[in-house]
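Narrative of activities, Objective 1.

The group set out to show that a structural description can be obtained from nothing but a protein's sequence at a throughput compatible with the screening campaign. Below is one input-output pair from the validation batch, recorded exactly as produced.
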Amino acid sequence: MQAERPIGELLRQWRRQRGLSQLDLAIQADVSPRHVSFVETGRTIPSRPMVLRLAEHLGVPLRERNRLLVAAGHAPVYAQRALDDPDLAKAREALDRLLEAHEPFPALVLDRRWNLVLANPAARVFFDGADPEVLEPEINMMRLGLHPKGLAPRIRNLEEVRGFLLPRLARQVAATGDPSLSDLYAELAEFGGGDFPAPDPSDVVLRIHITHRGEELRLFNTVTTFGAAFDITLEELIIETYFPADDHTRRTLLKTATA
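Output recorded for this entry:
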């Protein structure tokens, strides 16, 4: 956990990131603006219920809610378990079924730092031919996709993919302050890119065109998360499912699955 800052400073940072005034937050959380001001300036230390109420209305992730609680002198309340923990058995079963059901098209489960957690057999289209250097555990899918020794040489629309992924990673760095993500961004930015046009608001999916065993595959992806997560691990999981963008890709992946 990062070195702690005062609870008021942390809450003020989240409020500003959400583009809210103290009055906006007070109205949403049904507290007085004076109370919000006192919390942010350190004149009042909020109770645990108040921290959780403000965090809920600010949309603060569970990991960071724990951090807010600790900064206010309270014990954290959200657990973080390994995915193979018995308490997460139903969630793990759901993930396995989702990956299996998406065959013969690629599907991946990633953690908050883009490390691979689970994948179905069809996802091998992303790994074939990659240098062992980028396939060592933990496999980082952002690195694999943009590294010259990874998938990048097989991506036909590499600049478009870079222009989608690097700004997304930069926003993560800005939102979380995670030094690991910052280091990852610095590493990947060296491979090219950095100045990108403003994204098209209607561009909500990543399109990726890759060569695979002499065939060109055109895919697009969607991202799913656990919307009502009760555990930090579950909240931070990202499920990426890839779909064929044309009939040739669909037929090729179907043929590959039955070969």
